[in-house]
Design brief:
By secondary structure, this protein is an all-alpha fold. Helices cover 70% and strands 0% of the residues. It has one domain. It is elongated.
């Protein structure tokens, strides 16, 4: 339970960081492309919301005490992170020097989806490792 709460506190801190970098005037962004020809902006949006969804997807099921029915909680974590990313994009309309971009919203949502899936996979692996050898395999 302490681990789950720690993960959720870190997720809240990460969401605060994402909010901060979303509402301050636009920072300088390197012009060199990242691997696969993607932009730094895409990589930053994707990675930021991947991390948020991953933390939520791991923390939410563990905080509820029962790891059963994990996938709906991971789905909620991914959807919540994607909606939060959309909210941050809309918020940028009111920030001088910032603008909302549909492609950034898509990068946020894609990162959130991948983060939720990685969180779900991590929980499945941990659950499998905690199970006694041969248990549940008749």
């Amino acid at each position: 339970m302490v681990f789950a709460l720690s993960v959720l506190v870190f997720a809240a801190a990460w969401a605060g960081f994402l909010t901060f970098i979303s509402v301050v005037p636009r920072p300088p962004v390197p012009s060199s492309p990242v691997p696969l020809g993607l932009s730094w902006a895409f990589a930053a949006h994707f990675g930021g919301y991947l991390a948020l969804a991953l933390l939520l997807a791991v923390g939410l099921p563990l905080a509820r005490g029962s790891p059963s029915r994990v996938w709906p909680k991971a789905l909620m974590a991914g959807l919540g992170a994607a909606l939060y990313g959309a909210l941050m994009e809309v918020t940028q309309i009111a920030v001088p020097g910032r603008f909302a971009a549909v492609q950034d919203g898509f990068a946020n949502a894609a990162g959130a989806l991948v983060g939720a899936l990685l969180g779900l996979a991590a929980l499945a692996i941990v659950s499998r490792l905690r199970r006694p050898w041969g248990a549940g395999h008749d």
